[in-house]
Amino acid sequence: MIFFRTCLNSYKLTNVTFAIQPMIFSKADHNFRYGQMLVYLFFIFSWFLSSPAAAQEPAAPLCARITATLADNPRAVPFDKVAIFPFEADDPELSATFTTSFFTALRSTKKYKLLPLETVAGWQHTGEANDNSLRQIAGNFGRALNARGVVYATVHANRAMSLDKREPVTSLAIQIRMTDTKTGNTAWSLDIKCKGGHFLRQINITQASRIMEQSLQVLIRQMVKEGDIFSPMLPPPRVISSRGDLRKIRVVLQPDPQYIYSTYQLLTADNPRGIFTPHSPPVKNDQGPIILEETHLEDGKHYYCTAIGITREGLANIPEHPFVVTTSGAPKPLPYLQASGNNLRHIQLLWAPSQDPNVTGYTVYRSTTPDGPFVKIADIPNRRQQNYTDYGQDRSNYYGSLADDAQYFYTIRTRNKFGIESRGAPVVSAHTKGAPLPPTEIQAIGNQPGKIPLFWVPGEDPDIKGYAIFRKDGQEKSFQQIDFVSGRETQKYTDTGSWATPLKNNVTYSYQIRSINVLDISSEPSRTVSATTKPAPAAVKGIRVSNNQFRQVYLSWQPNPENDILAYEILRGRTSDDLHKIARINAPETSYTDDDLQDGSTYWYQVLAIDTDQLSGSLFSPVSATTKPPPRPPQGISIQISPKGLQLNWQKNKEQDIDHYEISSGGFISSRLGESQNPAFLYEITPEPEKTYTFQVRAVDKDGLTSSWSQQVQIRIPLA
Q1: What gap in Å lies between CA 351 and CA 334, rounded to an integer?
Q2: What is the CA radius of gyration of the chain?
Q3: What is the DSSP annotation of 517-557?
């Protein structure tokens, strides 16, 4: 059983399903023979108006009314052979005219295979019982000729004078029927009524042909409207090639002349006994190769196909035995996939691109185990692409977000434009890069002044961005990072401590170095190395200072035992806890004179050894020295009147280096009166009575130091 469903767009039919009812027919003249073939027809359609049982043609130029009526199921019987019984009329000439005209017009529709009129005429000579009805006679006629359908008709021509057949025809009524000779049922009927007019006066073959052609146009339109479209007279389309594609079938036909078919339709079904359905509109016959396509089909499925041609009137050939076309299934998988590891938080995938033109891209899957489950991580829309880098999900940096030192498993599937994927390619795996290796051959150089240089062989990992330096001294329990040096190729670092906490002298420090990559992942620590800083010079010993020196202090000391003493710094202060550098003496000098000091002042001194590395030695407790003080003011000054003036006397100063004494008048405005090397002075003057004289004395030593003025002494000269 074969079912056919199509849409006749040219006749504004929708939701149309048409097929063929149980029948037995032969197609030997079309290279087609099924033997006995059961075909079922089901026709469902909606018309822009509700479809009536009969179609009525509006008034035509020749006839006022033409009505075509079809049986309830006109598609149920395929009339593969039809005979035309001579039309019954009161005028043999009129009968012959309409019989011939109808035969010619029906043959031109290509709806039926008609028996020649000569065959019918030969049968008529055999005679028929007069008491049988026209319908019975026509049925017997058809069965005798092995015709499934027989057309018979009655023609009633009214004339002005009914008995005179030469009179003009005033009206015409024709009833045409086709009978199913097997069942005796009427397949269709045509009722034609023509009123008087100039053309009816003398009916000729031209006028009869026009009436029959117009009437058959009405009949054919009604047949098409009700789905009775198949004709055994129409040749089947010639299939040149057929091909299955992605959800699509492509069939190429050799076009027939346009007067045979105006369009072509491809019908498909899931099985040879299924309902054949179109998936695209008919294709116009433009005299080039006809390409019929059905789209939106299922993947990798066998479809049974047949093609029909459709005439301008809407008739179609009887579909041939279906041929099979298979749509494309899932694309072929890639033969291999390559995964490249040892990358920082990402893995590179490589493959040879698919050569299948239906492949539009790839889908990449990843798992943490070889047996899955695999999760889709990427859709690649380009068939020609042949690599992909898996950076992981929620990538937050340039390198990726996959786990470090982790193994990942991958497969890839090809994908066509409908999203159908192939099987997965063989599973491959790769490791992400772990932490970098630490640098090697670490060396620490000791006996350096306030610093320890470090050297190492840098790592070869291109993702190393630098090295973290860790240190601890003998008092610390664990290593602490003290610095970071950038650059993979960096291979040295000098530890000087920090500004706030420089390295101590003569202290042993231990070091470890770690490689740091661009994601701040640290290697394991390198082996531990240690070195001791250079000791500072020893404290200067044997510091000697002079005392009671005139405005200076002389210092001397023992030379330091170190061989690289560069200089000595002299520290001085007015108190023992506040000393400042006042001089730098280059070695090997071991003495220094501090001058321009204040008289009688005490100074505190320390000497600091400085080596060639500018290391400062330690300090002993400061020593003090006092400069020479000025003389004390003279004491015990007395004044006496002498014949020569006023005699001053005082006690001799205890200082041994007094050079002389200076005498001055006292008061607000004083003046120097003179000097004396002895503790006495004669002020030669004639004293004036009632006048008071004031004197003060100071001592001057040999270094020019002067004492402060003594207390003032006075004398008043009495009246004589």
Answers
A1: 8
A2: 68
A3: ETT--B------EEEEPPPPPPPP---EE--SBTTEEEEE-
- pLDDT-derived band at 204, boundaries 50, 70, 90: confident
pLDDT tens sequence across 319-333 = 999 999 999 888 999
Distance of CA 254 to the CA centre of its chain: 49
For strands 692-701 and 680-684, give the pairing.
unpaired
Is the four-CA dihedral 86, 87, 93, 96 of positive or negative sign? negative
Query: Which residue ranges make up each domain of the chain?
Result: 52-225, 238-322, 338-431, 440-532, 544-626, 638-716
pTM: 0.53
At residue 669, does pLDDT exceed 90?
Answer: no
* Number of CB atoms found within 10 A of residue 652's CB: 14
**109: helix, coil or strand?**
helix
Distance CA 69, CA 55 (A): 7
22-36, 125-139, 140-154: the lowest-pLDDT one: 22-36
Query: What are the structure tokens assigned to 85, written together?
Result: 């019984």
The CATH homologous superfamily for domain 52-225 is: ABC-type transport auxiliary lipoprotein component (3.40.50.10610)
- Is 350:436 a contact under the CB 8 Å cutoff? no
The CA distance from 494 to 595, in Å, is: 43
Which CATH number applies to 638-716: 2.30.40.10, 2.102.10.10, 3.40.30.10, 2.60.40.10?
2.60.40.10
